[in-house]
Structures are given as C-alpha cells and as structure tokens.
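Quick question: what would this complex look like in 3D?
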Amino acid sequence: MNYRAIRAIYLFEMARTWRTLLQSIVSPVVSTSLYFVVFGAAIGSRITEVEGVSYGTFIVPGLVMLSVLTQSISNASFGIYFPKFVGTIYEILSAPISYFEIVIGYVGAAATKSIILGLIILATAGLFVPLHIQHPAWMLTFLVLTAVTFSLFGFIIGIWADGFEKLQMIPMLVVTPLTFLGGSFYSVNMLPSGWRTITLLNPVVYLISGFRWSFYEIADVSVPLSLGMTVGFLVACMAIVGWIFRTGYRLKN
Amino acid sequence: MSPIISVSNLSKTYGSGFKALKGINLDIVKGEIFALLGPNGAGKTTLISIICGIANPSEGRITIGGHDIIADYRAARSMIGLVPQELHTDAFESVWATVSFSRGLFGKPKNAAHIEKVLRDLSLWDKKDDKIITLSGGMKRRVMIAKALSHEPQILFLDEPTAGVDVELRKGMWEVVRTLQASGVTIILTTHYIEEAEEMADRIGVINKGEIILIEDKATLMQKLGRKELTLQLQNKLEAIPDVLSAYNLELSDDGRTVTYDYDTKGDRTGITSLLNDLRNAGIRISDLDTKQSSLEDIFVSLVRAP
C-alpha cells in the first residue's frame, strides 16, 4: 500500500474543504436550519405526533440523511471531476498508486466531510428540538455506511460526467427527489397502500428508516432489511468503481 | 547495455477507431536525452501517455528499468517524472503545497531540503508561498517541472517543454535539462522545434502518423546535414558522364541538361575547383550553378511527406 499517496490525496481534499468552508459547511447548516423553521416550527406545530414523537423531532434523522446524501455525492463527484476538468488528473494516473488507494483517498475525504457535516447538523437540530438517540453506535454505523456509500456513488458520477450539467443532473433529478420521497418528512405508513408499495422501491427509504430507528426505535421497514439494503448498495457501488478502473472507463481512453 | 525504457510492438487504437500508434518499437538508453520529433497529431503525446500510465495500450509491451508498466506499475511509475504539454495546475494551492503533494503521491517521505533545492534550481524559491493562479505561464511551466522532479525520478518526460515559451525562458529550460542529465537523469522530450532537438538531443526519433520513421544519433544526422549538393545547368545536352569524371560520382538528370555533385562542406577539400577544371577540360560548358544544403528540416519534411 502506498499510504503516503492516500494521505496526500486525503489531505489535499480536506484542505479544499477548509478553503471553501462557507460553501462546504456553513451553507448546508443554514439550509437545514431553514427546514427546521418551516417544517418543524411553522408547519410542524399543526401536525400531531408521528408514531409517538413530535413532528419536529421526527424529521431530524431524515434531514441529517438528506444533507449527508446530497453532500456525499456532491463532494465526491466534484472531487474527482475537477481534476478531470482542469487536467491535473494526469498526475494521479501516472503515480505509483492502485485504484483502490485513489478511491480511499477521494472517497475517504468526501465521506469524512459529510460525516462531520451530519454531526454538525445533528447538533444544530438539538438547538431546535429535544434529541434522544437510543442506539448511538447504530446511529454512527448508519451514518458512516451512508456517507461512504453515497461518496462512492458520487465518485462514479464524477467519473461518468463529461460536463458540469451531467455532474448536477443525477443529484438534482434523481437523488433529491428520492430523498424527499424517501420518508425524510413523513412516515411511509402515512401513505395510502398503493403509494406505499411504490415507495418501497426507493432505496433511500431503507437508509432513512434504519437511521431513524437508531434514534427513536421507530422504523418503516425492518432494521436488518435497512442494513442489508445499505450494505447492498455499498457493494454495488464498489463493483461499479472496480469496473471503471479495470476498463479505464472515461479515464484512460 | 540494457535500455532503461523498452517499447515493443506498441499500438493504440482509440474508441473512435482512430489508430494513434502502429507497432512502435523504441529503446531509450540510460542517461541520454532523446528527442521525439513529429508534426501535430503524429502520436507523440499518446506514446508518452501510455508509457506513463495515463492511457491504456491496445497492444504491445513496455518496460521501465525492466519493470512491466502494467504488471509492475508501482516500480515502473516510481522511476518517471512527467511534464505534460498543457499547463494543468491547481489554481488555489501554493507552489510549495502542490510540489509537496506530488512527492507524497509518489510515495516518498517528506523531504523539505529536496523540494527547496528543486524550487531554487527552477528559480521558484521566492514564489513558494504564492498561489499558482497568480503565476505567469512560464512560471507555471516550471512549477510543473518541479512537481515532476519532486520525487527524484530517474526518467523525465518533457512533452513540448518550450511550446509557447519565449526565447529567454527556452534557453533557461535547456540549461535545466542539461543539469539534470549531468546528474544522471534520462530525458525524453518531444518537440516540433527542430532547433531544440539539434541543441539538446543525443539521439533523435521522428514519428509520423503513429509510426517511428527514423531513429538516429544526432551526430550521424548532423553529418548528413554537413552535406551539400552542387547543381550544374549545362549549355548542351549530355548523353553520358565522360569516364574522366567518374571519380566525382556525378548524377546526370534524365533530360541530360543537369548534373548534380554531392560534397562535404566539413571536409578538407570539397573537390569543386578540380571538378570545374575537369569539366572545362572535357569541353562541357555550364550555363548556371546552384548549391543547396540539406537541413534536418528537409530530412524531416521529406520523411513526413512520404506516402
């Protein structure tokens, strides 16, 4: 293993985060606070409890997930797309490092960033509503798994994209809708049965459900299923990344 | 001596079906400066990209210091520093940070003294804390060289190092390259400035349409350059060269009106005076004469234009 190379990429990417602190950390925190004001305080006060917890409290795990998902994707996709765009990728490709090490560097940094962000948002939420986490270890497990999985997914998008439009397309047109429809703001059980079945095809449902369970022990789907789906998605992303590097797709041809 | 880089039977076909390289065979000797000449689109950059691991080969095999570039890519790539043609740099990093990053990427432990030396040699030391975006084009080029040298490579690839660089800076760049060679680094540079190849290289290779059409010692090429051609227009048509002139190896044109004579300007005697004397004695009268030097440029153009 070329640990020094992993370290170099990781620190380089983290340095980019500190350089763009406003955009990386402050803006997601501000937008999450807005969600709390709108959904938690304004609308939430008119909604009765959901499965035994107040609406404001109920949406916390969903909101954290919303940020972690979108930020993981945007961090990782931008992290690898930008060197491709400005051409500095030549150095990564010509260095004595394996694909695995490249992925650890980029995805590790992107995931680190979104985990930090998720924890900051959680702390911010604590200012608005009382928080109680039943299973902190599982909470962290779901958080880390999701951050890593979606950073990998973002890495794939960053390699696939050959323009800024494509870079934005998947997060905007696919991930954001799936997250909103994935039970961030409601329990899937609140839906009519037809919609409920369709919703269960949405992978994000499983992530949010498992994450919410670690907080309040309430879940839309069983916890092992949530965990299984998350790990399954992680494995799928790893397989795609492996294929990309084996074939040199959009990198070496 | 075994070559430090050995390319055998290398071909590259792009996804579009374009054949960028066709069966390239090339050996680079340790410690030499090798200039790869060729027109735009000849395949110079593709060849370098494959050797350095940026593009995948379609066929063939390459070894660097005996290490296969695919099976043993870590050992192979550790030996190489690459300065690409385009100025690909991060904008917001400092010079020091970007050069240190490159060293880490190549798996070398931190060595501030080495990085300082590289930056000083390239006259970048007083810019070490500046953001790259604030530097001029020539300085950015030197930053890229510094990045390539940060991990102490044994082989340095310079892809069009002086394209778009002013005369002063070009001379400075040549100086840097010579110093590197003196320290034992093997250097491969691509250029389409023939002057540059003449100035720098120990050996010259010419590539065109994906094929290497000539590899020669510069000295041998220069000898060819030392040759001149004397063309004589005759007043009267000549059926054949008279036997008394056979020692001159003259060539008679098909129409019998032009005679050409090859001579070496660097020789002690060109033989021109005696040739003219002997022609007069043979009763051959001359209406006009012309001399022409074949340059590397001519050799290059005639090679590249050949079907």
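Answer marked as accepted. The interface with chain B takes residues 2, 4-5, 7-9, 12, 15, 19, 86-88, 90-98, 248, 252-253 of chain A (CB under 8 Å).
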